[in-house]
Every structure is written in C-alpha cells, then in structure tokens.
Amino acid sequence: MKADNNRITPKNWLVTLIMIPVVSFLVPIVFFGRRFGRPPYFTVQVYITTFITTSVIWVGNQIIMQWARRAFPQFEATGKRLLVQSLVMLLFTLIATNSLGYLLKDYCDFLNGEYPLKLSDVIIDSNAAALFCTLTVVAIYEGGYFMQELRRSVEEKEMFKRESLHAQLNALKTQVNPHFLFNNLNTLCSLIPENPKHAVDFVQQLSKVYRHILEVKDAKSICLQDELEVLNAYTFLLKTRFDKNLEVNINIPHEKMQQKIVPLSLQLLMENAIKHNIVSAEKPLHINIFTQNGSLVVSNNLQIKHQLHESTGIGLNNIRNRYKLLSNVPVDVSESETNFTVSIPLIDN
After folding, report:
1. Strand 285-292 relative to strand 339-345: parallel, antiparallel, unpaired?
2. In this structure, are 88 and 186 located in the same domain?
3. How far apart are CA 58 and CA 96, in angstroms?
4. Which one, of 111, 2, 22, 8, lies nearest residue 67 by Cα?
5. Which of 193, 221, 253, 267 could join 260 via S-S bond, C-beta 3.0 to 4.6 A?
6. How confident is the model at residue 246 (pLDDT cuts 50, 70, 90)?
7. What does the alpha-carbon distance between residue 155 and residue 142 come to, in Å, rounded to a whole number?
8. Is residue 127 situated within a structural domain?
9. What share of the chain is helix, strand, coil (3-state, %, to 5)?
10. Strands 246-251 and 285-292, how do they pair?
C-alpha cells in the first residue's frame, strides 16, 4: 500500500515538537553569540523570540513541502518539485523572518539592550539562522520522504514479483482447467466419427496451445507475432466448437509484430469474452483484435450471460499485475452499452 507522504502524521508532529525547542535554543548561541553567565546574555526574551520565529518558519516550510508533494505527486517529477519547493520556501523564509524580526525587535531588545547589535548584523544573522532552520527542515523531512519512497519502491517491486508468479500460475490454471479440457474433448469426440481429418487438425492445434502454455509459463513477455500464432490455434479450437456463432477478426500491422505483450493475455481475454457473453446463432459473438495508440485492443459486443456466480475479475487482475512489471502504461478496461473493450500496452524491445 502506498504511504500517504502528504499528511502530517503523529511521527511528523513528534519530530516538530522536539526539534523546534532544540533549534530555538541553538540559534541564539550559534548565530548571535548569546551565553549563560556572561554578556551578551541568553535571556528568556531572546529564547521566546527565537522560538516564535523558528515555529513559524518550521511549520510554514513543512506545509509548503506537503503542498509541493500534492502538486507533484509522481516520483519522476522530484526534480521539478524540489525546484519549485525550494523557491517558495526561500521566499517564505525571508519574508517571515524579516517581518517577525520587525514586529519583535523591541521585545527581544537586540538593538537597544546592554550589548546592542547593528541593524545590518541583526538582519544578516537572523536570515542566516532562518535559512539554517529551513535547511534543517528540508534535511529531516526530505530525507525521511526519500527513505520512505525507497522502502515503498522495494516493497512494491517484491509484491509485483510475487503477483507476477501468482498471475502466471493463475493464467496457466485458467487455460489448463478441467472445464476447458472437457469442452475440447467433447468437441473432438464429435469430430472423430464425422470428420476424421478435421479431428486430426483439431488435436494438432490443441497440442500447439498446450505446448505454448508450458513454454511461456515463466516468461515475462513475448513477441506479439509468436502470441498471435498460438492465438490462431486457440481460435481454431473455439471456431470448431462454436462454428459461425463466433467471429474473430484480427487486424495487426506488420510493423507491430515484433513488439511484446504479456504471455497468454490474448487467450485470457478471449476466454473471458466467451465465458461472460452469450454465443449463439441468434446472438453471435464478435471479437475484434487491433492496434490503437500504442496498445493492443481486444473488443467484443456485449451480450452478458446470466450466471449464478458473479465474475471475480481474476483474469483481468492477473494481466494488470503482470503489466506493472513491464510498463508504466496501465491496462485500460472500458464498457459501453454495446461493447466491452480492453487495451493492453505494446512493449518496445
């Protein structure tokens, strides 16, 4: 699960509550030379002034960082986010520091005390201290953010690997299942006495499909040309079974043949179309396979079959999860009143 890095968590608040008093204590000593027991003294007024300024700068910059992460949520846009974030934080820090310095100058008594400072020195030291506070905020929260993103990236990669193996196994089970085998054996039994030659062809195509399943079960991707060759064998089995009640149209340009897709994805999508739709002489099923905008599209006319059990969507989820390992382009699923369409990305070599 992706962590919400834009929200102020209890851990963030704990860091804020600890660091603001610490930084407020260090700034007068490091930047203004304040000491305990000798002048210029570290007084309560000095600490309160620094505490107020540090709190405003710290919390304000924290809010700016959260805004920047919402505005540029993609990790790939980190460079742009850091540039915009840095400019806004710098502008805010300078405005807040000098405005608060002007409002609190009499209370802090930097200019008129027993050991007064020059106005130019106060401005320089105040802005230097404010920039130090801002850099501390950036170091703490950006460091934590990048560590969290790195950990999430590693966890997601491991999760996708597990999902890929599970998806490949499910894809194999989806094709090599008793129901699928039972239907094809029934078709074969009816062919043998009526048309022995067709029965031989049927066995050869069935063998080709099963051999392909075994060969690609561990592959992450496969050339579209190779997948289409097996899809033709798979289509032959389906057409033998449904005859004219099923129509499959494949229109793929030759230049797309060497691009890659996830193995068995076309068979899964065709199997889903037949599983969930009526295929009959009165309502023939039309499946169209073509390329569009860098994707392979599988579309069928929608004539939903009434089923006892609602679809679990396992087939589509398997395809989605396997594509996450290979492409940043998501699998697109759309449904209209007349058609169900799935677009899967074509992957360049």
Report:
1. unpaired
2. no
3. 11
4. 8
5. 221
6. very high
7. 20
8. yes
9. 65, 10, 25
10. parallel
Q: Distance between CA atoms of 235 and 229, rounded to whole angstroms?
A: 10
- Are 201 and 295 members of one domain? yes
**289 and 248 Cβ atoms separated by less than 8 Å:** yes
Pick 293 or 314 by higher pLDDT.
Answer: 293
Residue 223: which CATH number? 3.30.565
The percentage of residues in the chain with a pLDDT greater than 70, rounded to a whole number, is 84
d(CA 336, CA 225): 30
- The residue to which tokens 């806004």 are assigned: 88
Consecutive H or E run containing 344: strand 339-345
Burial letters for 99-134: b for 16+ Cβ neighbours within 10 Å, e otherwise?
Answer: ebbeebbeebbbeeeeeebeeeebeebbbebbbbbb
Q: Is residue 164 part of a domain?
A: no
- Domain of 277 in residue numbering reads as 176-345
Cis amide linkage into residue 330, ω under 30° from 0: no
pTM: 0.52
Tokens found for residue 266: 């076309």
Give the model's pLDDT for residue 1. 37
Tens-place pLDDT, residues 116-162 = 556 666 678 888 888 888 888 888 888 877 888 778 878 877 877 77
